């Protein structure tokens, strides 16, 4: 889907979420605490949200939300993001996108 490709190719960090998803909120807050200001795209606020959801699944997302892309590449959902963070591998991925303090 063109909308997804455009977002992930023009922005360093993109999180596809739903406004009612607590795990989406947790991942978004984690990124903000790591001094990253991700583009947060709430698919339930988009009239084409169902199509976006299907397209995310076709891209390899294990669940449609949260779907995290860093540097144009799919990182995954909550489990993958938290595993990367706990292993110390997330911050190096985010380094180019961190805000200066």
Blueprint (SSEs and pairs):
Elements (H helix, E strand, L loop, with lengths): L1 H9 L2 E5 L4 H12 L5 E4 L6 H10 L8 E4 L2 E4 L1 H10 L2 H5 L7
Describe the structure.
The structure is a single chain. By secondary structure, this protein is an alpha+beta fold. 46% of the residues lie in helices and 17% in strands. The chain has five helices and four strands; from the N terminus they run αβαβαββαα. It has a four-stranded mixed sheet. β1 (13-17), α2 and β2 form a beta-alpha-beta unit. The radius of gyration is 13 Å and the shape is globular. The N and C termini lie far apart (36 Å). 31% of the residues are buried. The mean pLDDT is 95.
Overview in brief:
This protein is an alpha+beta fold. Helix content is 46%, strand content 17%.
């Amino acid at each position: 889907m063109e909308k997804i490709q455009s977002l992930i190719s023009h922005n360093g960090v993109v999180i596809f979420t739903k406004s009612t998803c607590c795990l989406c909120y947790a991942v978004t807050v984690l990124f903000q605490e790591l001094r990253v200001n991700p583009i947060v795209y709430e698919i339930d606020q988009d009239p084409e949200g169902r199509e976006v959801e299907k397209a995310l699944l076709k891209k390899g997302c294990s669940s449609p939300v949260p779907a995290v892309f860093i540097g144009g590449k799919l990182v995954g959902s909550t489990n993958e993001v938290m595993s990367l963070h706990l292993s110390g591998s997330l911050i190096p991925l985010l380094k180019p996108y961190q805000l200066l303090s």
